[in-house]
Fold these 2 entries.
Entry 1:
Amino acid sequence: MAHSIIVENLSKQYRIGELHRETTLSETLIHTLTQLFKRKRKETIWALKDVSFKINAGEVLGIIGRNGSGKSTVLKVLAKITYPTSGTTKVLGRVASLLEVGTGFHEELTGRENIYLNGSILGMTKRETDAKLDEIIDFSGVEKFVDTPIKRYSSGMRLRLGFAVAAHLDTEVLLVDEILAVGDAEFQKKCLKTMGNLSGTGRTVLFVSHNMEAIKNLCQRVIWIDNGKVRQDGEPREVIKDYMSSFIGMHQPAHGFAHITNRGGNGDIRYNRIEFLSSDKQPLKAAYSGNSFVARLYYYAEKQIPSPHFGLELFTELGTKITSFNTWTSGFEVPFLPPGNGYIDLEVESLNISAGRYYISLWIASSGNLWYDRLEQCAVLDVEPSDFYKSGREIKRQHTHLFGIVLFPCKWNLKGESPK
Amino acid sequence: MKSEYLLELWRYRELFYFLVWRNLKVRYKQTILGASWAIIQPVFTMIVFTLFFGRLAKIPSDGIPYPVFSYCALLPWTYFSTTLTQSGNSLVGNKNLITKIYFPRVTIPASYALSGLLDLGLASVVLLGMMAYYQIQISWGLLLLPFLVLLLVLLVLGVGMIFSSLNVRYRDIKYCLPFIIQIWLFITPVIYPTSFLPERFRILIAFNPTCGIIEAFRASLLPTRDVDWHLLGISVLMTLLIFTSGILYFRKTEKDFADII
């Protein structure tokens, strides 16, 4: 099969501090002067190092990786926005890059005018836009406001308009970066549907995302970029599983969080570790489907925290969020938390999930939308099979795909009318 | 390489057209006076210049009524200074485009060089009225005008490319650009005629390309003045020099724009 994208030994070096910093002449002068008297410091990082891969024409490929792993840099190099330090890239056919929805939108221009502007920025000719204008307007769902300057638009309307233009691109190669991270659920669904329609149309799509669910559903192949290198390249489920489990490998031992560096939040209060207990608060050897269990979350508060909310999210091995246990939806109010160490227990009456490996994310937030701490996939919960329905039939791990992830306690009743 | 680049510019001509169109569209949005600003600016400058430099300071204007004398120079000068300010800040102002999409970067400063011409055209209408009022005849020299405008576009593009790309790395440009333009006005014969200067300064000032271009503007519009071909010749050479260095510098630096902007 013909290749559509060929990347060979691609490396990209950034000078540290070069990214998004405003330099002024005086700073450069001072810097140059101090450099004269100092020994040269090493101040470069490799955002990408020796990345090679080939993509077949018509393939939909996903790129995953942690924040700052270099996955967006790959896209930017392919889109010719930034230049590689070494190595070569080759893209065959017309390319459109979609690094953001509504690139180049101008506040003062109307929706219609912005469709033309954005279209031409994304590489559509005026004739193409003319031909598709009605479709685009229809798709965007902002017909009524199409002659209003977009500064009067809500952010949702802007997104829909931008996406409507993007959805009507028909280049051979499409580079898409994390556009699903924005917008409401409805918008995301629309995006996914449109993206889904792309596969099988013979177009080559490169799709960067944190949304494992989307990657799994859309892509035929996944590349995992870690620290600027290709860590794995292959079948989506395999790569995603390994990627998800890599979070844990890093954060062991014993579910302590001390060495996690890329955690979010302002740090006024931090989780120390997590412990799994049985309902009588004894250490838990194994969690079973349908059994009760307790997650004990240890924290340390720097200062007094007014009305904090705690959350624990449960993800499948493929990154689908199953549930979010949190004090906010549960209505459990903590007026204030004194500074120092402590723990909070989450008691789950029945673990209604089938056997398998699950990942846990933790957060602490204020009721005013301020993050104190955020830990992505920081712990693992292995759930062992059990006889959940008391039928003598254990639902085994390898049968999860048959019987599903969630188990509901239920009963069956049959009422048959026997023929007379 | 060179022809490849030109080919690419050609391929992106529609985007260039849309950028020019955008600049024009948004230029006077949400203003009460709209496009009349294109006229108000040079006209009021002309009035102020006439009062202070013509009447009070009694700066000679070689026998031409001072308002006409200064307005003939203010037309190209206003285009030059306004466009230079815009194109100098253009890359930084279009940061979102540069970091998100590929296209030949030069289309950004170039789009401002082109869209500024509309203002120049609008402001020129006033000149016609003034010439009628002072009963100044139009001469064949007018045929030189398109060439002079082209020269001015090349010059502003050259300087604009240098400043805009410097601005990407050093934001100092944003602050010193207005200052540079102010100084530039004083070393350009807008307020005064070149003949006002002592001989030894006249040679020096000839190296300022706006000098020859603006004097030629006057000469082509006013029948009583002759084109100083030597002066214009130097200006043409300087313009080509600046334009070429602008392109070379821009091409050399544009690869890093997205990384450092």
Note: Chain B has one domain: 36-260.
Entry 2:
Amino acid sequence: MDYIKKIFNSSSLLVPLVSILLGLLTGAIVMWFGGYDPIAAYSSLVSRLFSSPYNMGEAVRSITPLIFTGIAVAFAFRTGLFNIGVEGQFMMGMTGATLVGVLLDLPWFIHAPLAVVTGAVFGGLWAAIAGYLKAARGVNEVISAIMLNWIALFLSNFIVVKFLVMEGQQKSHPIKESAMLKIDWLVQALNSARMHWGTLVAIVCIVLFYIILWRTKIGYEMRAVGLNPEAAHYAGMNVKSTMVKSMFISGVFAGLGGVFEMLGVFGYQTVMAATWGYGFDGIAVALLGGNTPIGVFLGAILFGGLNYGSAGMSFGADVPPEVVRIVIGSIIFFVASHGIVKWILKPFLRKRANNRKEAA
Amino acid sequence: MEFLNILGQLINITLVFSTALIFTALGGLFSERSGVVNIGLEGLMVSGAFAAAVATDYAIQAGMTESAPWIGLMAAAIYGLIFSLLHAVSTITFRADQTVVGVVINIFSLGMAIYLTRSLYHGSSQTTTLQHVFTKVNIPYLSDIPLIGNALFRAYPTTYIAIAIAVISYFVLFRTPFGLRLRAVGEHPSSADTVGISVTKYRYIGVMLSGLLSGLGGATITLTTTSNFAHNTISGQGFIAIAAVIFGKWNPMGVVGAAMFFGFSQALRNFAQLFEFSKQIPTEFFYMLPYVLTLLVLVTGVGRGSAPSALGQPYDPARR
């Protein structure tokens, strides 16, 4: 309970909230300079999100992968690792799920779970490579993960082209119905918004994130290693294997994100020129959420909503939707350099402190 | 003879592809040598590619057709430098996490470039195709040498500039007091501080040089390869440049070698169908090559010890 109280104390909330405001303000200034109407733009963004059952469903759809990648990044952060490779692990998750979904023919109660597990393990192992290289060879996980991201992209493309491709097209055969994880009745109820079980799994994963890190022995060890590897080693923990395990779990979360984009949303995999960026947005989500379960959830809702609502800006206010990327970039810029936020807030905070002094 | 001709063309295209990598990787080198990791090279290249496309277009419209690409190149350098200031202010002055800010630069630059493109070109997500970009120049006499002449001395002006900057970088880094101080700040900032070298100043310079050079790198791609800017004009070259810095062991000459080698692997992809040995190799493997090789270098520990010791650590004078 103390932990939950800690999340909601004022100082930990102040920086993210002010950063969000500053980010939206930056976006508004950019729009104003471009000769657009920021208020009309933001209101059409929000109104798109709530305009119809279809749009609400699709907004949830675009929030879901960010929950996965957000927890993946946050989990690694908590264990002292910067998993910038979520992007690649997401791709490997997609590829694992598509492989099983396209090539195998099984009854649904085996096929779908097998596809999910395969994708998750693909993601986990891909992350474990970076973890292993750090543990065994001392390679900085950020650099190795950046390389692994691109290798994952081209490896996935290779697998799609070599084993799964539909003749003359740049995409795989459709994933078999038995592996798909759409929620059919909900899809129908929301005018064919692409709803899938992944959203539910994402919420379960948030809970798992909390339970693993704060309610299990292994999670305690992971956090201890993250806080102080030398002390953890002195206390008899196996630092290296803990590192690999943390990366594996982080990668499983990332992989699951990719799995459900395939099994829940698209149903086929394309040959891609670049990765989707969910992994990098996951870094944004985790940072904004302070690497806490609830924070990640709220962060994913904010960024997923912004991303999905951005299309409304071009319809409603004729504003280029990319302005949302500027907003997201600036929010994280301010969260990361919280020194700037505190510097901006200084006059206000000093005033408040003075008032308090006078009152006393 | 046929084979030699193809080889000549291959070398020529290698030079085209590696030029942008050389610029950007040298930028990354200056930043990392001063102790600041710059994951944002990709975003800075995007900024440069965008600024070059727009400035060149406007210069052509203003009637300065001949000098337009040069104006584009200058604009790209300045625009890249401005974006790198975001990185510098937050990571050096406010000691933010360098990797996070790098990711921010990537998200922010691409968003800004496409937003501005749509604003300036009536909703289109790419700029108009430029009517006048750089053309290859022949170096007098040298380009007449059979085989070698065509391969090496018929190139875009940017290629010669890149190689000149590489040579200058080497001298600046290893033969001038400025270079010594920049390296000192990346190796042991507190010692540097003790002897009166401003860590903040040299790190700012390092990061700003990375913005300037990455801007030139991005501009090179617009002005020699694509002739316009779109969301996919830069796709991964910034990350290959990061790989080149590591593969080249943080040394300008090594970095140029690495950039050329990675450029060669890209060029080879275009010629893969012409050779028996390369026909069998899927094109994806050519794309992967720079990353796999860099990973191998990291794993085998060949590059260990060459990385600046204080790389990635914000300098806090209160904690030395």
Note: Chain A is about 80% helix and 0% strand.
